[in-house]
Amino acid sequence: MTPTVLDASQAGARLDELTVLDVRTPGEYASGHLPGALNIPLDQIGRALPALREVPGELLVVCASGARALRACEVLSEHGVRAASLTGGTQGWTAAGQRLDRPAAGARAVWAMERQVRFTAGTVVLAGLGLGLLHPAWQLLCAGIAGGLVFSALTNTCGMAALLGKLPHNRPRATDLEATLAALTHR
Questions:
Q1: Which of 45, 46, 124, 172 is the most exposed place for a label (fewest CB within 10 A)?
Q2: Are 68 and 112 in contact (CB under 8 A)?
Q3: Are 57 and 83 in contact, with CB atoms under 8 Å apart?
C-alpha cells in the first residue's frame, strides 16, 4: 500500500487533528520539530507499534527530508497502521514558511543529522588532503568518503548517519520513549 503524502499546507491546515510522529534522532528533534510532534526514532518504531495501533485519528510521520518517514510508513503499513508522510519533511515544512517548536532557552541544541554528516565528511576529507601532503596514501581517505557519498545518494541510505546516530547525544534514553508512548496513549 502506498502511504498517503501531505504537503506542508495540507498538514498545516489539519495539524490539530493529526498525531505527528517525528522519526528523527532525539538530537535532530531537539533542533526543531513540528508543533506538537512526538519523537519516536525510526529504529524504535517496532517497540512503539502497540501504542501506535491505539492512536485515534490519523498519524503524520515526519523526518528531515521525507525518506525516513516513508520507511516508517511502510513499517506501520505492514502492521496494519495507516499513516501519512510529510512531503519534504521538516525542511519542506520550514521552506513553506511554517514554524518549528524548539527546546526552551538554555537547552543544548544538537545539530540536525544532515548537518552532522556534512561536517564529518568535510572534516575527514580535509584531514585526508592535509595528511596526503605527508604521504599520498592518505588521499585514499578522501576517495573513500567520496565513494560513500555517491553510494549514499544512489541507495538513499547513509552509513555515516547511522554511525553518528549511535553517538550519545543522538541516542534516545529509554525513559524518553516510555514518556512519549505515555503521551501518545493519553491523547
A1: 46
A2: no
A3: no
162: part of which helix (H) or strand (E)? helix 159-164
Mean pLDDT by 10 residues, the chain (187 residues): 84 93 86 91 92 91 93 93 94 93 66 87 96 94 94 90 84 65 73
Torsional class of 145: left (φ above 0), alpha (ψ -120 to 50), beta (otherwise):
alpha
- Tell me the one-letter amino acid at 170: N
| Helix, strand, coil fractions of the chain, as percent rounded to 5 | 55, 10, 30
Give residue for cell 545539530: 111
Residue 18, beta-bridge partner list: 58
39 φ/ψ angles, rounded to the nearest 5 degrees: -95, 115
C-alpha distances out from residue 155 to 51, 75, 151, Å:
31, 18, 6
Contacts of 10 (CB under 8 A, 6+ apart): none
Q: What's the CA gap between 181 and 166, in Å, rounded?
A: 22
Dist CA 73 CA 67 (whole Å): 10
Instruction: Name the helix (H) or strand (E) containing 62.
Output: strand 58-62
| Set of cell numbers at residue 88 | 519534504
Q: Is the Cα dihedral 10, 16, 21, 26 positive or negative?
A: positive
Sheet holding 4-6, edge to edge: 4-6, 83-86, 58-62, 18-22, 38-39
